[in-house]
């Protein structure tokens, strides 16, 4: 680990000042400390933001939900408002990492976490995300866990977050404070960036910007939702595939469908074609199968991850059935 | 009074070409129970072949470990796990992966189970830490320690302190409703010897006060 100076801030103003001078925010530290130890990350200054007052979970005026950036994963998952209004979020969180890590890690850090690609983590390997221009060892390497959607010739790493898949499905907004103190919000679809030719650019925020909250917009009620995660072992493992599904069914007809997949994309993958297939239809076994058949549209599998194409469709189909019922 | 701090025999895991092989933790002084007990050792970078002559940035932290207050100067890079093991001589917490992936280093910070390998010590000013060494009440073992013995819930024992600390957290959090629930909420602790069935039984027994 490279030496770094450390400062703890108690107001967002102090944080932004330190961020503007090049300081790196640390929240739970579960991504950052790990990557610093691997020397993938080499910040000169850590700015401890854990004391900032960004730990609330509030229902917004119109019936959405605002989760503070420093709410711990464990707290968000256990929160009764989250559990009752958006079970897909609490399920995605509880299927993430371990109880210990969820006690440490925050919602803001979670959506900022970096890929688990082994070549990214290995500073002796070629990786455009870590060292722009050095190449991508995963393209011709062991790429079983890598992405099949949203990839480029420069990077095929997945975004590892589960909660981000739920946020993508629910079309959340990320609230950030700029170093000038001005607030703005970014739609989740624009927040995480596909690699293209600049895989080192991962989020649509600028250096020093501070995430203050993730806001889930209003969705029509009743909304049934849930998260399914498929992995190499039962627990404490990242997704091979996953599906976040939220459905609003009224009068026996699906009026709103929000579906996204994890473990398969360079960013959480919104399944718009699946959503469109569901809208206006009556739930049925045949519908789940037909809609899920569109889940891997546009997929470009690599040598070792062809299995993800079928696995993704089956994951989405199963989760549609679990959430929408079988009839 | 001055105490010699032990020279570490463990080097932090390093990766060429960006890292040096020197230990990541350098503690300089310790104050325990309010009185200065140590003063002396500073493992200087030069002694270990580091190019830079400057002392690495460090910070002063006051934290309570198993009821004892310590004030220490730590190199900012020092993890709680290294502080416990290398500096405070509390070697019950184990280093398995040093990356949050095994749970052997689990301790309680302010009553919550966390991975001490991913916790920077410099962030813990004012914190209360409980390790496996602080669980028993004198000669009376904690109910979960006794349950691990009764159920024979270990083989080599390397994961055990982490399992027990995690189990204490799990019971406190109330995730012991069924064997299945215990398995899921204890999944952050890997046991290479595969003692899972008995570990689940031990947590279950302790939770139900058997
Ligand atoms: C063994 C292991 C298994 C895991 N398994 C899973 C899993 O299955 N699913 C999953 O989703 N995740 C998993 N994780 C990842 C874990 O969820 C993340 O490490 C965690 O959510 C990051 O949050 P943090 O608060 O610790 O972030 P930190 O490490 O503190 O920060 C991460 C990054 O975010 C930046 N940042 C943090 N907060 C802010 C803010 N408010 N504004 C701007 N920037 C900010 C930091 O500067 C840093 O770059 C796993 C991690 C480990 C170590
Ligand atoms: S040593 Fe901390 S989790 Fe493995
Ligand atoms: S008892 Fe050997 S690792 Fe668990």
From TrEMBL, chain A:
SMART domains in alphabetical order: CO_deh_flav_C
All residue ranges annotated as the FAD-binding PCMH-type domain in the record? 1-221
The lineage's top-level taxon is: Bacteria
List, in alphabetical order, the Gene Ontology terms for molecular function in this entry: FAD binding; oxidoreductase activity
Which keywords appear in this protein's UniProt record, sorted alphabetically?
Oxidoreductase
InterPro entries registered for this protein in UniProt: CO_DH_flav_C (IPR005107), CO_DH_flav_C_dom_sf (IPR036683), Diverse_Substr_Oxidored (IPR051312), FAD-bd_PCMH (IPR016166), FAD-bd_PCMH-like_sf (IPR036318), FAD-bd_PCMH_sub1 (IPR016167), FAD-bd_PCMH_sub2 (IPR016169), Mopterin_DH_FAD-bd (IPR002346)
Q: Which Pfam families match?
A: CO_deh_flav_C, FAD_binding_5
The protein's name: FAD-binding PCMH-type domain-containing protein
Organism of derivation: Streptomyces scopuliridis RB72
User: Which lineage?
Assistant: Bacteria, Bacillati, Actinomycetota, Actinomycetes, Kitasatosporales
TrEMBL record, chain B:
InterPro entries in alphabetical order = 2Fe-2S-bd, 2Fe-2S-bd_dom_sf, 2Fe-2S_ferredoxin-like_sf, 2Fe-2S_ferredoxin-type, 2Fe2S_fd_BS, Aldehyde_Oxdr_Iron-Sulfur, Beta-grasp_dom_sf, TAT_signal
The keyword Iron-sulfur is annotated on this UniProt entry: yes
- Pfam families the UniProt entry points to: Fer2 (PF00111), Fer2_2 (PF01799)
UniProt KW keywords? 2Fe-2S, Iron, Iron-sulfur, Metal-binding, Oxidoreductase
Q: Which domain of life is it from?
A: Bacteria
Residues covered by the 2Fe-2S ferredoxin-type domain? 59-135
Recorded metabolic or biological pathway in which this protein acts: Alkaloid degradation; nicotine degradation
Q: Where does the signal sequence lie?
A: none
Sample GO molecular function, one term: metal ion binding
Q: Which SUPFAM superfamilies match?
A: 2Fe-2S ferredoxin-like (SSF54292), CO dehydrogenase ISP C-domain like (SSF47741)
CDD domains given in the database record: fer2 (cd00207)
The record's annotation in NCBIfam families points to: TAT_signal_seq
What is the designated name of this protein? Carbon monoxide dehydrogenase
């Amino acid at each position: 680990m490279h030496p770094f100076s450390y400062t703890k801030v108690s107001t967002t103003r102090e944080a932004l000042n330190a961020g503007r001078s090049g300081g790196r925010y640390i929240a739970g530290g579960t991504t950052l400390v790990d990557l610093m130890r691997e020397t993938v990350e080499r910040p000169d200054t850590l700015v401890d933001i854990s004391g900032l007052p960004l730990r609330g979970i509030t229902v917004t005026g119109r019936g959405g939900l605002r989760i503070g950036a420093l709410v711990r994963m464990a707290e968000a998952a256990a929160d009764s408002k989250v559990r009752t209004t958006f079970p897909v979020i609490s399920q995605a969180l509880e299927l993430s990492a371990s109880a210990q890590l969820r006690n440490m890690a925050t919602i803001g850090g979670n959506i900022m976490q970096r890929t688990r690609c082994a070549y990214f983590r290995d500073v002796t390997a070629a990786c455009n995300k870590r060292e722009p221009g050095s190449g991508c060892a995963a393209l011709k390497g062991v790429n079983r866990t890598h992405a099949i959607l949203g990839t480029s010739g420069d990077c095929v790493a997945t975004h590892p977050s589960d909660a981000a898949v739920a946020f993508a499905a629910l079309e959340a907004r990320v609230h950030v404070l700029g170093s000038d103190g001005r607030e703005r919000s970014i739609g989740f679809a624009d927040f995480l960036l596909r690699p293209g030719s600049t895989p080192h650019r991962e989020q649509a925020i600028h250096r020093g910007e501070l995430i203050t909250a993730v806001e889930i917009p209003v969705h029509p009620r009743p909304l049934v939702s849930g998260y399914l995660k498929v992995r190499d072992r039962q627990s404490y493992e990242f997704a091979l595939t996953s599906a976040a599904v939220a459905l609003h069914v009224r009068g026996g007809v699906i009026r709103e469908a929000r579906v996204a997949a994890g473990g398969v994309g360079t960013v959480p993958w919104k399944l718009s074609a699946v959503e469109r297939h569901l809208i206006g239809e009556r739930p049925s076994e045949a519908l789940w199968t037909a809609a899920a058949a569109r889940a891997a549209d546009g997929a470009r599998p690599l040598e070792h991850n062809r299995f993800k194409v079928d696995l993704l469709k089956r994951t989405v189909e199963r989760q549609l059935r679990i959430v929408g019922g079988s009839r | 009074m001055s105490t010699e701090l032990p020279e570490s025999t463990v080097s932090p895991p390093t990766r060429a070409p960006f890292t040096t092989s020197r230990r990541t933790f350098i503690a300089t002084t310790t104050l325990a129970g309010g009185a200065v007990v140590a003063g002396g050792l500073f493992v200087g970078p030069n002694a270990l072949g580091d190019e830079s002559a400057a002392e690495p940035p460090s910070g002063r932290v006051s934290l309570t470990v198993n009821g004892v207050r310590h004030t220490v100067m730590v190199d900012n890079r020092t993890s709680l796990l290294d502080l416990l093991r290398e500096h405070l001589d509390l070697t019950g917490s184990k280093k398995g992966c040093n990356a949050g992936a095994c749970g052997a280093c689990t301790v309680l910070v302010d009553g919550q189970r966390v991975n001490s390998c991913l916790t920077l010590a410099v962030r813990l000013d004012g914190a209360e830490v409980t390790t496996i060494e602080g669980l028993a009440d004198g000669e009376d073992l904690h109910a979960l320690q006794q349950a691990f013995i009764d159920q024979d819930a270990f083989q080599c024992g390397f994961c055990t302190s982490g399992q027990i600390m995690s189990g204490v957290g799990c019971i406190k959090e109330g995730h012991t409703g069924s064997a299945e629930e215990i398995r899921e909420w204890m999944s952050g602790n890997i046991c290479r010897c595969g003692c899972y069935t008995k570990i689940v039984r031990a947590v279950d027994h302790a939770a139900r006060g058997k």
